[in-house]
Amino acid sequence: MGIVLITGATAGFGEACARKFAAKGYDLIITGRRQERLTALQQDLEKTNGVKVLPLTFDVQDEKAVSSALEQIPDSWKAVDVLINNAGLALGLSTIDEGSLSDWDTMIDTNVKGLLYVSRVVIPWLKARKKGHIINLGSTAAKTVYAKGNVYCATKAAVDAISQGMRIDLLPYFIKVTAIHPGAAETEFSVVRFKGDAGKADDVYKGFKPLSADDVADTIYYCATLPAHVCINDLVITCTQQANAIYTYKE
Ligand code: NDP
Ligand code: 8X3
């Protein structure tokens, strides 16, 4: 079927994508920082789906770790068909005068620089084969800035701009670039944002039915399996009770 490389496969959208693509017979390169989760996922997917899974543990913020982990894989694994740049996070919700500098650094280093570091290694592999698909996880936060979301929203606006740039630059190589912009989805995202405060995280999803990780993975799979001449460039997906990053109808 092909090879899919997914960053941030230890939870949420990334894990759901791994399960979806493995169920359809794709071999996978799965990455994240939590090695035990990667190993458990590898064993489960290989046993359940009979596919090959290569787990790679690295922090996308660390350029040297990214390039050495990816460059050392066997050439047969470099025939990547789909790169899903999914690893990312929000940290905190603060007005611009009160935000934590360290949270800003982590969000920018992960969501923007990490995505660039991984792409910089993988794009030559796609170019060499004159085919491939890069799917970048943006957000409704890329399209509409919300109060106290300043820096997180900026990182996702950067993903939006980088996706547009990638698409133009990679046209000569028949490489598709899709930016997926989900609205609120119940994953570990809010637990991470609120630094382990499960009560605060649960409150985010009260009064409406948010997207699930599977809803987003199904959409990514759809985009990745269109005919070679068809590319969804930019896709916003929200639950039915959400209009954009600001307006959610809660009961
Ligand atoms: P989760 O917190 O459930 O999963 C995030 C994944 O990213 C984990 O696998 C985590 O792995 C990985 N990750 C985070 N930081 C790093 C790092 N420095 N290096 C390597 N991997 C990292 O969140 P979601 O699945 O919800 O989010 C996935 C993406 O979708 C993010 O980019 C997020 O911004 C975006 N998004 C999420 C929305 C939502 O409402 N949930 C809506 C719109 C966009 P590990 O901790 O093991 O390293
Ligand atoms: C994640 C969704 O609304 O918290 O990007 O920004 S939101």
UniProtKB/TrEMBL annotation:
Keyword Oxidoreductase: yes
Keywords: Oxidoreductase
Gene3D superfamilies from the UniProt entry: NAD(P)-binding Rossmann-like Domain
One GO molecular-function entry: oxidoreductase activity, acting on the CH-OH group of donors, NAD or NADP as acceptor
Family, similarity comment: Belongs to the short-chain dehydrogenases/reductases (SDR) family.
Protein name: NADP-dependent 3-hydroxy acid dehydrogenase YdfG
Organism the protein comes from: Chitinophaga sancti
Lineage of the species this protein comes from: Bacteria, Pseudomonadati, Bacteroidota, Chitinophagia, Chitinophagales
